Amino acid sequence: MEDNRIYYSYSEYLKKKYGEKVYKLPVNLPVSCPNRKEGAGCSFCAEEGTGFEAAGAMVPVREQLMASREKVEKRYHAKKFIAYFQNYTNTFLPLDTLRAYMQQAAEVESIVEVCLSTRPDCIRKDYLRAMADFRAETGLEVSLELGLQTVNYHTLRKVNRGHGLAEFLDAVLAIAPYKFPVCVHMILNLPGDTMEDAKESARILSALPVSMVKLHSLYIPKKSVLYQEYRNGRISICAKEEYLERLAEFIALLRPDIAVERLFARIPEKDSAFCNWGHSWWKLTDEWTALMKEKQYVQGVHCDYLNGAALNRWGL
Ligand code: SF4
Q1: What is the CATH number of domain 10-303?
Q2: Backbone phi, then psi, for 161, in 5-degree steps?
Q3: Cα 284 from Cα 240, distance rounded (Å)
Q4: What does the buried/exposed string (b/e) look like for 178-211 if buried means 16 or more CB atoms within 10 Å of the residue's CB?
Q5: Average confidence (pLDDT) over 247-262
Q6: Quick check: CB of 276 below 6 Å from ligand 1?
Q7: What is the mean pLDDT of the chain?
Q8: What tens digit of pLDDT does each residue of 149-189 get?
Q9: Is 41 in the pocket of ligand 1 (CB under 6 A)?
């Protein structure tokens, strides 16, 4: 982490890994999600899944990548890119089909990595082996984004995640021997969760071979099950100040080498009934930065609970 930084940002991580700025280019595949096939899906999930920025799923991968690459190249003078298979559950495809889409991405110039967004219960050894072969053949990195959202397995059940904490732990440990960087998606203010859940989430992630976290403050898409609960007053969302406090404690407990990709939700306002307490994410970032400074916190300042903490405390 650079000296004057409060947290280790994902952009800093990428710069260190690739020697320059790298940008993610979203790709939508014609894929679904087992949790939607078997029921209504996660209660916070919008009908279109989690990809708001990408093109239609029927547009060929190359075309999607070329279109967004052109925009990003012009705007940021970028030279290296990550093909980000963003929407729904990308490993919920027959392996050959997934491999073919990855190959299409690999054939686009300046792609250095393929990032697959998925669920813990869609990680299996044959898929991991195929990804390792792909990496060996193409020389491209493969990274995985796993949705977890909270370590509180009671909350996971309430929001209908369709998996618990155990499946997440199993997936992370199954990925570890392949050394694919793993990013974990978390929501620190799911209804029913408390500050203790946010803190325990940071502790559990820090004890695992995780490379990145992506944090979202809870937002309520109009086309979600949660929207009905919100409208009927059956759930409440914690105050902004409470979220900022949870975020501060989470980052203070998080292992310093875990890169942080996002701190607040970012979705189009028109699609949501609630998002970021009506504030812009950069205003919230400013407020949170001020809070971190007031507390004299930086990432990992309280990450001293690992590696025989009691032995260390007692000088043994
Ligand atoms: S796992 Fe992702 S795509 Fe599937 S229902 Fe949940 S949020 Fe939606």
Answers
A1: 3.80.30.30
A2: -70, -25
A3: 9
A4: eebbbbbbbbbbbbebeeebbbbbbbbbbeeebb
A5: 98
A6: no
A7: 94
A8: 999 999 999 999 999 999 999 999 999 999 999 999 999 99
A9: yes
Phi, psi of 133 (to 5 degrees): -65, -45
- CB of 118 closer than 6 A to ligand 1? no
Answer whether 159 contacts ligand 1 (Cβ < 6 A). no
**Ligand 1 and 50: CB distance under 6 A:** yes
Q: Are 167 and 121 in contact (CB under 8 A)?
A: yes
Residue 54's pLDDT band (cuts 50, 70, 90): low
Atom of ligand 1 nearest to the CA of 36: 5
Q: What are phi and psi of 308, to 5 degrees?
A: 65, 50
Closest atom of ligand 1 to CA, residue 46: 8
Residue 69: what are its φ and ψ, rounded to 5°?
A: -60, -45
CA of 140 to the centre of ligand 1 (A): 27
Residue 140: pLDDT over 80: yes
pLDDT tens profile 92-104: 999 999 999 999 9
Cβ contact 169:210 at 8 Å: no
Looking at the CA of residue 161, tell me the nearest atom of ligand 1. 6
Whether the pLDDT of residue 3 is over 70: the answer is no
Where would I find the H helices in the chain? Answer: 10-18, 34-37, 61-76, 95-106, 125-138, 153-158, 165-175, 195-206, 225-231, 240-253, 281-295, 309-313
User: Probe ligand 1: pick from 89, 157, 190, 220, max atoms within 8 Å of CB?
Assistant: 89
